């Protein structure tokens, strides 16, 4: 059970009473009149073959208040897209599946690419961006939630608690971030958040000095959680990275566009487990190695836009400071694991810290070597300014795909 302590500058909504799910869903049914709700699910086709998504679909089939579910499908052939349409057909809501690799959406992507408006690389950020475009085009919702498709411990209570703060007409929140304890199989998970993000934020505070943005990021209990919700209007002006910096990028945009009293985080699960990325120490282009580099780059870019000046010497200082703070955190987490009867491999934890420290330097070098890098996908406001009917084109392409290939 969470405490009621409010840390940092972002409101925390706890799970204090284990309120019955039926009560939450009844309230959400009332909210839908003023704030109709959608859910976005970014998915690889491989997740349709995994152990988590079938249970997620069966849980979502019981959700009565969602107007729309938009699924972004990556890395799928035509045969696999047909299979996906049947796979999701048990959902009673208005369901649309975006075939991101299909000819219609590829044609739209090419049209955007010709004007330098398309996402520059494949990944979750690109998938989410197109899904958000469809949500805006359809106009069916005023609040939208997003979560991953690999959650092994999924309950429909997760989406109810996640969307509640932006769906409740009495609340003024424009954005909500989910959080939870990453504990499963008697061990702590969430290495990138525990051993990279929090220690790196603390290191940047030491090296760069007082900083409102770093205080803001440090207020989130699980900044890399893939679960968040918005008022739909927020999406129009959202500029997000297409790589692993998505979560940090979204948090950055919320701080740039809104006062912190319009933002919150909510406890959405007692336990949370999903598929785990490999550390990939030998491959900087994959696994947690790439993730840690992308996230570090996202942090450095954001600080630079706020006027922070970086140099090779400064990055060396940041790396050294990070390394010492992260090693102290390893001991803290080991003690936390011991008192809770969890297993803890200190050697693996410190190996992860060593890799992350290398990648902090790698990210810094990339940042200095690529001063003209534009990693953010343009906002939908900019895209519609350049191509006024692009949302209508996207909606037509998705709807035609769903009609043509549905079994």
Q: What's the short story on this structure?
A:
The protein is of the alpha/beta class and 407 residues long.
Tally of strands: 10
Strand content: 5-15%
Q: How many distinct domains?
A: 1
Order of helices and strands: EHEHEHEHHEHEEEHHEHEHHHHH
Which structural class fits the helix and strand makeup? alpha/beta
CATH class: Alpha Beta
Q: CATH homologous superfamily, by name?
A: Spore Coat Polysaccharide Biosynthesis Protein SpsA, Chain A
Unreliable runs: none
Indicate the CATH topology: Spore Coat Polysaccharide Biosynthesis Protein SpsA, Chain A
Biggest pleated-sheet summary: 8 strands, mixed
Describe the structure.
One of its GO terms (molecular function) is transferase activity. Keywords: Transferase. InterPro entries: Nucleotide-diphossugar_trans. The chain has one domain (11-405): Spore Coat Polysaccharide Biosynthesis Protein SpsA, Chain A (Alpha-Beta Complex), CATH 3.90.550.10. Helix content is 48%, strand content 13%. The chain contains 14 helices and ten strands. The chain has helices at 21-31, 53-60, 78-87, 103-113, 124-138, 157-167, 191-208, 212-217, 246-257, 287-305, 312-339, 346-369, 380-386, 390-405; strands at 11-13, 37-44, 66-74, 94-99, 143-146, 175-180, 183-184, 187-188, 228-231, 263-269. The strands form two sheets. An eight-stranded mixed β-sheet has the order 1-10-6-9-5-2-3-4, with helices on both faces. The model has no long low-confidence stretch (mean pLDDT 94).
